[in-house]
């Protein structure tokens, strides 16, 4: 099936009560799968990354956003059908939308001469649908923050807005959650001036993004330039310059310009946009809003859904349910009930085919559902994996470490997660692929990073363009902002805490009053493995630290984050844990804030 990937050994065959059929895509939050419910409904299931699930702050936000998204409704968005926010690995299931993304429709024209910019009637229906979607989203206290062509699906009866993966609850947006310098949320070509300047983002930011999306749909070009020619140049144009709308139809150009006003207060609200465009025609008698060849492909795509009833390419050895419980991988043959349920799909599919029968064009359709990636990857196979190494500046060691986790993906997608670890800070970034070039006959990756986590808060800033290229003896060479590193492939064991460290350890406070207690648990690199609880004269202090690496019989954990502070409670620097021959646990701090400490195991 075009645009879908078969399951691999890394994919579970079940999540909750949903049988997985194919992988739709992956991104900063996790993986998205095409799945089918026990009642026969096709759904998209997003499985959160394990390292994010271990972060209580993320889990709290995920709960709030799922609860809000349930209230949005499904007329102009993908409805939330089910979720388990308390599972070891949280997930959410939404209705699967059988249609291409706007980026695929317009992008296929740019690449191959197929489809192309939408006609004016289609643009007006698109604008009306986007306005109604934002009205529903904002009405339950959400701001989308990443409205772009790949998050807009085109269906027979109108557009749908998907992927609230980086949405934020409006009531949680305050001084403490404003975007900091160097921390930008969104996709460069489709951000608002507020986003690129690091200001507070509200509902009006989504309206600006509507203008950019409509400009792209009307002209086939990004209105402020392509990030391949320089992300920061695009961001400057968004903040300071006027968009390129020369090719936009006259009847829609004024509306686009109003949405693209630099001043948020000057932009129309979604309600005003919908009223200005008038109600969209509905019902079975309404004329098609898309070109005939697209309508034809929608019907053909619906038929192809039947072929995904059995996951292609075999089954993984275990399955993941709500609580990650292994069970036999190969499902039993379908029961009579299941066979009848499949037959109930046939009238629905036949209707879709009949609606498309008058159009003959057959252009390949890549379907994202809730964020699918293209079937091919731009990342060379030799780059895939985890890499780490010490950082140099002007040839001298800085004491910092840099780690990249590289996955498959296309230009413009997040293909890597990067961690920079210093003695007193830890910075995590998502890296989008800008281009793949060749250096001295070898492929080289150009990446643009966005800071997604800073410890301590406000410490981290993006370094600009990063490059990764093949080095000697199976290494990768990294460079950014005058810094370099020779990265070595990290063995899977480096992300696993040895059993001897697991458990609870304790020592008395230096003043003889109270205790310091460490609890070490099993979790992957990047997740919280260490919880410190200090009981002293000032009260109770609780802090957490994430695993960077487990190598050479030692654990390296990042600086701690205090989540329950007492007077005098302060976070600690990056530290290294080791086991002594007498069965004690030793902790050495890389900053100058603490003396080495020893702990005894709690029986």
UniProtKB/TrEMBL annotation:
InterPro entries: Kinase-like_dom_sf, Prot_kinase_dom, Protein_kinase_ATP_BS, Ser/Thr_kinase_AS. It is an enzyme of class 2 (transferase). Pfam families: Pkinase (PF00069). It comes from the Bacteria. ATP binds at residue 46. The gene is afsK_7. Keywords: ATP-binding, Kinase, Nucleotide-binding, Serine/threonine-protein kinase, Transferase. PANTHER family: MITOGEN-ACTIVATED PROTEIN KINASE KINASE KINASE 20-RELATED, SERINE_THREONINE-PROTEIN KINASE YBDM-RELATED. Its EC number is 2.7.11.1. This is Serine/threonine protein kinase. Residues 584-596 have a biased composition (Basic and acidic residues). One of its GO terms (molecular function) is ATP binding. Residues 18-290 form the Protein kinase domain. Residues 319-340, 571-603 are annotated as: Disordered.
């Amino acid at each position: 099936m075009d645009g879908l990937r078969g399951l691999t050994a890394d994919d579970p065959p079940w999540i909750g009560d949903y049988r997985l059929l194919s992988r739709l895509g992956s991104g900063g939050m996790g993986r998205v799968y095409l799945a089918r419910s026990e009642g026969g409904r096709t759904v998209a299931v997003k499985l959160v990354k394990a390292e994010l699930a271990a972060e209580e702050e993320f889990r709290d936000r995920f709960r709030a956003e799922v609860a809000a998204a349930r209230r949005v409704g499904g007329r102009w968005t993908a409805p939330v059908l089910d979720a388990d926010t308390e599972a070891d690995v949280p997930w959410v299931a939404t209705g699967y939308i059988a249609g291409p993304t706007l980026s695929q429709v317009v992008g296929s024209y740019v690449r191959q001469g197929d489809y192309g910019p939408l006609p004016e009637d289609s643009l007006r229906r698109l604008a009306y649908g986007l306005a109604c979607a934002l009205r529903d989203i904002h009405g339950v206290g959400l701001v989308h923050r990443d409205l772009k062509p790949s998050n807009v699906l085109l269906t027979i009866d109108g557009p749908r807005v998907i992927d609230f993966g980086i949405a934020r609850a409006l009531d949680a947006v305050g001084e403490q959650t404003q975007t900091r310098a160097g921390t930008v949320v969104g996709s460069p070509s489709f951000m608002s001036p507020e986003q690129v300047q690091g200001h507070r983002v509200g509902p009006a930011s989504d309206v600006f993004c509507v203008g950019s999306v409509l400009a792209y749909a009307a002209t086939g070009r990004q209105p402020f330039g392509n990030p391949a020619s320089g992300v920061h140049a695009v961001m400057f144009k968004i903040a300071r310059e006027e968009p390129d709308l020369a090719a936009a139809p006259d009847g829609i150009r004024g509306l686009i310009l109003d949405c693209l006003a630099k001043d948020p207060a000057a932009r129309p609200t979604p309600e005003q946009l919908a009223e200005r465009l008038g109600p969209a025609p509905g019902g079975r008698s309404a004329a098609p809003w898309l070109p005939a060849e697209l309508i034809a492909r929608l019907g053909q795509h619906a038929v192809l859904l039947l072929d995904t009833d059995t996951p292609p390419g075999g089954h993984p050895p275990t399955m993941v349910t709500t609580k990650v419980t292994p069970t036999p991988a190969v499902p039993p043959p379908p029961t009579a009930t299941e066979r009848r349920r499949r037959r109930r799909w046939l009238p629905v599919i036949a209707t879709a085919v009949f609606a498309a029968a008058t159009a003959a064009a057959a252009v390949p359709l890549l379907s994202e559902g809730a964020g699918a990636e293209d079937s091919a990857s731009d990342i060379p196979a030799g780059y895939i994996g985890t890499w780490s190494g010490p950082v140099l500046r002007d040839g001298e060691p800085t004491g910092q470490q840099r780690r990249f986790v590289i996955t498959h993906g296309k230009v413009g997608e997040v293909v890597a997660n990067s961690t920079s670890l210093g003695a007193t800070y830890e910075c995590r970034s998502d890296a989008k692929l800008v281009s793949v070039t060749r250096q001295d006959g070898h492929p080289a990756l150009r990446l643009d990073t966005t800071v997604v986590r800073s410890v301590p808060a406000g410490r981290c800033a993006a370094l600009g363009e990063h490059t990764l290229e093949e080095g000697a003896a199976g290494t990768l060479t990294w460079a950014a902002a005058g810094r370099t590193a020779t990265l070595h492939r990290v063995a899977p064991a480096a992300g696993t805490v040895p059993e001897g460290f697991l458990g609870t350890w304790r020592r008395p406070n230096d003043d003889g009053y109270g205790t310091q207690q460490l609890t070490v648990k099993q979790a992957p690199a990047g997740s919280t493995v260490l919880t410190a609880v200090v009981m002293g004269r000032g009260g109770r202090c609780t802090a957490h630290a994430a695993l960077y690496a487990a190598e050479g019989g030692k654990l390296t954990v990042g600086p701690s984050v205090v989540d329950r502070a007492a007077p005098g409670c302060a976070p600690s620097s990056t530290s290294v844990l080791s086991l002594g021959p007498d069965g004690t646990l030793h902790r050495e701090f890389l900053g100058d804030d603490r003396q080495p400490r020893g702990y005894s195991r709690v029986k």
